[in-house]
Design a protein that fits this description.
The chain has 2 domains: 85 residues, 3-Layer(aba) Sandwich (Rossmann fold); 124 residues, NAD(P)-binding Rossmann-like Domain (Rossmann fold). Helix content is 41%, strand content 16%. It contains 10 helices and 11 strands. Strands 1-11-8-7-5-6 form a 6-stranded parallel β-sheet. It has a 3-stranded parallel β-sheet with strand order 3-2-4, sandwiched between helices. It has a two-stranded antiparallel sheet with strand order 9-10. A hairpin with a 5-residue loop joins strand 9 and strand 10. The chain binds guanine.
C-alpha cells in the first residue's frame, strides 16, 4: 500500500517557516500585507478566500478583504486594482477566480502589478516561470513540487504525466517538472488513449476536476500519484480525480483529497506574499 502524502503536515511546516520570517520582518517595522478580492458569492470561492485569510492570520500576514457584488463592472474592479498597485502598504494582490462573465479575467490578471502578483498569473511572471528564473511561484504547482521533494523523490529522468492544461495548474506544473529534469507529457481532453500514456508514468499529476479520471488500471505499480482536483460527490463529500481507494493499493506515494494538495496551495501563497514583501523592501 502507498505512503499517503500528508499535505496538512507539509503545509504546516512551510507556514511555520513563513511565520518565523514574517515575525523577523515585523521586528524591523515591516508588515507583510495581502489584499484578497472576491467578486460575487460563489460558495467554493468563499471557502477558498476564508482559508486564505485564516492562513494569513496564522502566519502573521495582514489580510485585507475586498468583497465586491456580483454585478461589479470590469472598470470598477480595475480601478480597485490600480489603487492597490499604488498602495505601498499592500505587498500582494490576489483576485479570486472565476470572475462573473461581464469581467475579462485576463484583463484583470494583466492589471495586477507583477511585483504584487502572488498567484504568478501575470504574463510577465508566467514568462519568468518559462525561462526558469521565477520570482513568484505558481501556488498549486509549486505546492506539488514541495510535496514531492519532501518525500525525498528525485524527479530526474522520471516520466511525468500531467493531466490538464490550464494556465493555473497544468501548464506551469509541466514547466516546474521540466526544471526538475523530468520528461514531461501533458494530456488533455483531446488526448487519445490516456490510459496508455498514464500506464508508462512514474509520476501522474491529475488536474482535471472530474471524478475517476485516474483509475487503478491506468496506474503502473509504484507510481507516484498527485491529485490536484477538488470535486464534490453526490453525497456532498469531497474527492479528487483519482480513485483513491483502489489506486493507493498500487502507488508508492499518493495524495489524499482533502488534505493533500489543497493546503499546500495556500502555504505557497503565504510564501509568495512573504517573498513579495521582502523584494519590495530590498531584502
Ligand atoms: N481559483 C481557483 N484557484 C485559484 C488560485 O490559485 N488563485 C486564484 N486567484 N483564483 C483561483
Amino acid at each position: 500500500m502507498a505512503n499517503i502524502i500528508d499535505g496538512k503536515l507539509i503545509s504546516q511546516n512551510l507556514k511555520d517557516r513563513v511565520k518565523a520570517e514574517v515575525a523577523e520582518l515585523k521586528k524591523d517595522g515591516i508588515e507583510s500585507c495581502l489584499a484578497v478580492i472576491i467578486v460575487g458569492s460563489d460558495p467554493a470561492s468563499r471557502v477558498y478566500v476564508n482559508n486564505k485569510k485564516k492562513a494569513c492570520e496564522y502566519t502573521g500576514i495582514k489580510s485585507l478583504e475586498y468583497a465586491l457584488p456580483q454585478e461589479t463592472t470590469q472598470q470598477e474592479l480595475l480601478e480597485l486594482i490600480e489603487k492597490l498597485n499604488g498602495d505601498d502598504s499592500v505587498n500582494g494582490i490576489l483576485c479570486q477566480l472565476p470572475l462573473p462573465k461581464q469581467i475579462d479575467e485576463q484583463a484583470v490578471i494583466n492589471a495586477i502589478s507583477p511585483k504584487k502578483d502572488v498567484d504568478a498569473f501575470h504574463p510577465s511572471n508566467v514568462g519568468h516561470i518559462m525561462i526558469g528564473d521565477h520570482v513568484m511561484l505558481p501556488c498549486t504547482p509549486a505546492g506539488v513540487i514541495e510535496m514531492i521533494d519532501s518525500c525525498g523523490i528525485d524527479l530526474t529522468s522520471k516520466n511525468c504525466v500531467v493531466i490538464g492544461r490550464s494556465n493555473i495548474v497544468g501548464k506551469p506544473m509541466a514547466m516546474l517538472l521540466l526544471q526538475k529534469n523530468a520528461t514531461v507529457t501533458v494530456c488533455h481532453s483531446k488526448t487519445k488513449d490516456l490510459a496508455e500514456i498514464t500506464r508508462r508514468a512514474d509520476v501522474i499529476v491529475s488536474a482535471v476536476g472530474k471524478i475517476n479520471t485516474v483509475t487503478a488500471d491506468m496506474v503502473k505499480d509504484w507510481a507516484v500519484v498527485i491529485d490536484v482536483a477538488i470535486n464534490r460527490k453526490d453525497d456532498g463529500k469531497l474527492c479528487g480525480d483519482v480513485d483513491f481507494e483502489k489506486v493507493k493499493e498500487k502507488a508508492s506515494f499518493i495524495t489524499p483529497v482533502p488534505g493533500g494538495v489543497g493546503p499546500m496551495t495556500i502555504a505557497v501563497l503565504m510564501k509568495n506574499t512573504l517573498n513579495a514583501t521582502k523584494n519590495q523592501n530590498g531584502r
